[in-house]
Automatic annotation (TrEMBL):
It comes from Lygus hesperus (Western plant bug). Residues 1-68 form the Xrn1 helical domain. This is 5'-3' exoribonuclease 1. InterPro entries: 5_3_exoribonuclease, Xrn1_helical. GO terms for cellular component: nucleus. GO terms for molecular function: 5'-3' RNA exonuclease activity; RNA binding. GO terms for biological process: nuclear-transcribed mRNA catabolic process. Gene3D superfamilies: 1.25.40.1050. It comes from the Eukaryota.
Amino acid sequence: MKSKSSPLLKYYPEHIEIDREGARAEWEGIVVIPFMNEEELLLAYESVQKDVSVEDARHNVLGPSLWFHYDEKMTPTTLLDDMFGTLRNVLVRREVFDFPPMTTRFVP
């Protein structure tokens, strides 16, 4: 949260609680934050869209859900990655994943 005048400031506590119930490692904890009012969130989102760079807007689109899984039986491949460089002997398969349709409405 960068702006002290943000309409969403009240949803960003100064101190956070981390729920570690059932966690074996510290990084498995879940940050506990208050539920946000959807209308306030959408209004705040729309109010800043004019300031979003073209590159950031390109990343902010809904794409397919992807499933990455290790497959020791596949032929190892080499991938070129902008961030990590050349990745050799990759044994990870990427597939589009379709979530099953919801039969009930989600209620937090």
